[in-house]
C-alpha cells in the first residue's frame, strides 16, 4: 500500500474507535488513531461508566433505607454527594487506566495522536493539535468513529438557562434539591432513579405519552410504576413551551392537554436524544454522505465513499457501546479483509436500561414482529415464580419471549426485573446460534440462579405445546390413571 502514510486511520477514540484500531493493528495494518479529547469517549467519561456508578451509589443508599425488608434495621443513609462524585470520577479513571489509555494501543503498534481531524480529500486528513499546529496524513482506509453528543432542542429561552447535559452532569459537586429532567429515554430514566435515591426531588418531563418509547410497553409500565413508587414524578404529554432562569431557580413552562403549567427546580438535565459529531470533519471534501447529520453506511459499515467506513454513534443507528463495538469490528474487517462475510446483525440488537429493576431486550420487539407480519407466540414468566427473586425480595418483574409456535425458534426476548440485563445474554446466544425454546428448556441451569428464569420461561413452550390429545394418547398407551391437565388457559404458568 505504498503511497499512503497509513493503511488505516481511525478518527475518534471512543468505544468504536478503540475497537476498530485494535482490530486493524491485529490484522497487521499500519494504523493511526486520532482523538480530539480523551481516549475512552462518551462511555468512559460522560456515559455508561459514570451513570452506572452513580446508579449503584443510589441503589446502596436505597438499600440502607429499605434494610428492614431483609430483617435488618432501616436507616437514613448519610450521603456526602461530593464524595459520591469523587467516587464516580475515580471509577472512570480506573476504567480509562485499565482499558483506554494511549500506551495500551501504542503497545499494539498503533500511532495514537491527540488532535482534531478533518478531511482534505478522500485519502487525506488534517490533524489540528491543541497548540494550533497542523499535520496532514494520508491513508488507504479510514474509519470514522466520532460519536455523538447531547442534542438540545431549540426551546424558547434555553440559551439563557444554565442547563446540564451528560457532559456536565457528572462534574456537579452539589446534589440538586429539585432536579428537572426533560426527556424520559434511557438517560432521563436512569438518572431520575440515581438522583431520587440520592435524595433529590426529581421530575421527568416528556412530550411523549410514555417513557422509554423503544421498549415493550407492558414491561415499561412495570418499571414506570416502580419508579413512581420510588418517588420519581412525571409530566408526560408535555409540550415544553419555554424555559426560564430565575436566580438559581429554573422554570419550565409546559402545556399538557391544553393546560399550561410551570414546573420549577434548581437544576435541569436535558436528555432529549443525541446528534452525531460530524460538523468538524469536512465530510464534503471526502465525498461522505450524511442523512440528518448521521453518516450513511451500508450493512458493512461502508460510507458513500468506498474507502471510508463509519461505526458507532456517528452513524445514528444504534447508540450503544456494544453496538459501536460490533460495528467497529465489521468496519475494520470489511475494510481490510474485504471478502469476509460480515454484516450488521440488525435482527439481534440488544440493550439494557440499568435501573432497578433493569429493563433488557434482545432481538425483535413485538412491535417489529407485528409490522413484519411474523407469526409468533409470547411466552411469559413472572419473577414471582423465580425462587432466587423470592429469596432476595426482588419479585417485581416479567420475562417475555417471542418465539415460533412449533419450532420454538426464538425471535426476541425482553425482561424487566433484577439482573434482567445479565440473563438477556443467554437469549442473545440462543438467537445467534438458532437455539430454540426447547434447547433452553432442556439445558440444565444452576439452582437458584437468576438465569433459571430463562429456563422456566422456556418450559412454558413445552407446556403450551402439550395438548389434551397427546396426554390422552400417553394415558391410553401406558394405562396411566391421572387427570388430563387443563391446557385451555393461555396464560397458565407452571
Ligand atoms: C449518560 C449515558 C449513559 C449511557 N449508558 C450506556 C449503557 O449503559 N450502555 C450502552 O451500551 N451505551 C450507553 N450509552 C451510549 C454509549 O455511551 C455510546 O453508544 C458509545 O459511547 C458510543 O461510542 P462511539 O465510539 O461511537 O462514540 P464516542 O464514545 O462518543 O467516541 C467518539 C470520540 O471521537 C472523538 N472525536 C469527535 N470528533 C473528532 C474529530 N473530528 N477528530 C478526532 N476525534 C474526534 C470524541 O472526542 C470522542 O472521544 C450511554 C450514553 C450516555 C450519554
Ligand atoms: N443503558 C443504556 O444502554 C443507555 C443509557 C443511556 C443512554 N443510552 C443511549 O443514549 C441514547 C440517548 O438517550 P436519551 O435518553 O437522551 O435519548 P432518547 O432519544 O432515547 O430519548 C429522548 C426522550 O426525550 C423526549 N424529548 C425529546 N425532545 C423533547 C422535547 N422538546 N420536549 C420534551 N421531551 C422531549 C423524547 O420523547 C424521548 O422520550 C439512547 O437512545 C441510547 O442509545 C443508552
TrEMBL record:
Disulfide bonds join 43-48. NAD(+) binds at residues 183-190, 273. It comes from the Bacteria. The keyword Kinase does not apply. Its cofactor is FAD. Residues 6-327 form the FAD/NAD(P)-binding domain. SUPFAM superfamilies: FAD/NAD(P)-binding domain (SSF51905), FAD/NAD-linked reductases, dimerisation (C-terminal) domain (SSF55424). InterPro entries: FAD/NAD-bd_sf (IPR036188), FAD/NAD-binding_dom (IPR023753), FAD/NAD-linked_Rdtase_dimer_sf (IPR016156), Pyr_nuc-diS_OxRdtase (IPR001100), Pyr_nucl-diS_OxRdtase_dimer (IPR004099). Binds 1 FAD per subunit. Residues 349-449 form the Pyridine nucleotide-disulphide oxidoreductase dimerisation domain. FAD binds at residues 52, 313. GO terms for molecular function: flavin adenine dinucleotide binding; NAD(P)H dehydrogenase (quinone) activity. It holds the Pfam family Pyr_redox_2. Keywords: FAD, Flavoprotein, NAD, Nucleotide-binding, Oxidoreductase. Belongs to the class-I pyridine nucleotide-disulfide oxidoreductase family. This is NAD(P)/FAD-dependent oxidoreductase. It comes from Gracilimonas sediminicola.
Amino acid at each position: 500500500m505504498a503511497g499512503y502514510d497509513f493503511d488505516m486511520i481511525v478518527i475518534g477514540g471512543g468505544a468504536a474507535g478503540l475497537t476498530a484500531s485494535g482490530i486493524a493493528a491485529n490484522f497487521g495494518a499500519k494504523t493511526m488513531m486520532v482523538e480530539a479529547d480523551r481516549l475512552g469517549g462518551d462511555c468512559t467519561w460522560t456515559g455508561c461508566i459514570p451513570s452506572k456508578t452513580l446508579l449503584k451509589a443510589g441503589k446502596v443508599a436505597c438499600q440502607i433505607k429499605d434494610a428492614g425488608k431483609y430483617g435488618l434495621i432501616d436507616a437514613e443513609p448519610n450521603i456526602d454527594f461530593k464524595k459520591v462524585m469523587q467516587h464516580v470520577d475515580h471509577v472512570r479513571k480506573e476504567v480509562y487506566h485499565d482499558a483506554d489509555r494511549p500506551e495500551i494501543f501504542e503497545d499494539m503498534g498503533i500511532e495514537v495522536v491527540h488532535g482534531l481531524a478533518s478531511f482534505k480529500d478522500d485519502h487525506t486528513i488534517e490533524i489540528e493539535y491543541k497548540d494550533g499546529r497542523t499535520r496532514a496524513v494520508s491513508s488507504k482506509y479510514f474509519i470514522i468513529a466520532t460519536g455523538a453528543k447531547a442534542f438540545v432542542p431549540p426551546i424558547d429561552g434555553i440559551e439563557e438557562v444554565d442547563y446540564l447535559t451528560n457532559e456536565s452532569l457528572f462534574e456537579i459537586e452539589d446534589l440538586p434539591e429539585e432536579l428537572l429532567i426533560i426527556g424520559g429515554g434511557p438517560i432521563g430514566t436512569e438518572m431520575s432513579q440515581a438522583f431520587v435515591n440520592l435524595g433529590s426531588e426529581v421530575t421527568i418531563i416528556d412530550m411523549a405519552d410514555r417513557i422509554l418509547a423503544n421498549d415493550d410497553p407492558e414491561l415499561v409500565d412495570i418499571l414506570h410504576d416502580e419508579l413512581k413508587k420510588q418517588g420519581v414524578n412525571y409530566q408526560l404529554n408535555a409540550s415544553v413551551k419555554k424555559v426560564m432562569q430565575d436566580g438559581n431557580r429554573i422554570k419550565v413552562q409546559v402545556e399538557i392537554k391544553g393546560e399550561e403549567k410551570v414546573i420549577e427546580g434548581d437544576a435541569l438535565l436535558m436528555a432529549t436524544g443525541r446528534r452525531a459529531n460530524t460538523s468538524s470533519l469536512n465530510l464534503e471534501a471526502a465525498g461522505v454522505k450524511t442523512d440528518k447529520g448521521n453518516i450513511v453506511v451500508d450493512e458493512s459499515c461502508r460510507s458513500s465513499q468506498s474507502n471510508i467506513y463509519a461505526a458507532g454513534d456517528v452513524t445514528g443507528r444504534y447508540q450503544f457501546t456494544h453496538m459501536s463495538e460490533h460495528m467497529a469490528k465489521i468496519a475494520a474487517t470489511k475494510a481490510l479483509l474485504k471478502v469476509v462475510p460480515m454484516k450488521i446483525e440488525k435482527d439481534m440488537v440488544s440493550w439494557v436500561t440499568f435501573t432497578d429493576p433493569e429493563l433488557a431486550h434482545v432481538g425483535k420487539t413485538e412491535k417489529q414482529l407485528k409490522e413484519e407480519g411474523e407469526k409468533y407466540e409470547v411466552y411469559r414468566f413472572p419473577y414471582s415464580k423465580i425462587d432466587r427473586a423470592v429469596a432476595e425480595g426482588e419479585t417485581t418483574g416479567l420475562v417475555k419471549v417471542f418465539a415460533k409456535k412449533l419450532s420454538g425458534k426464538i425471535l426476541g426476548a425482553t425482561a424487566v426485573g433484577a439482573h434482567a440485563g445479565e440473563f438477556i445474554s443467554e437469549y442473545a446466544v440462543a438467537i445467534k446460534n438458532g437455539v430454540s425454546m426447547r434447547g433452553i428448556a432442556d439445558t440444565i441451569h444452576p439452582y437458584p440462579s437468576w438465569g433459571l428464569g430463562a429456563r422456566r420461561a422456556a418450559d412454558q413452550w413445552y407446556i403450551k405445546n402439550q395438548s389434551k390429545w397427546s396426554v390422552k394418547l400417553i394415558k391410553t398407551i401406558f394405562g396411566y390413571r391421572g387427570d388430563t391437565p387443563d391446557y385451555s388457559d393461555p396464560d397458565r404458568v407452571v
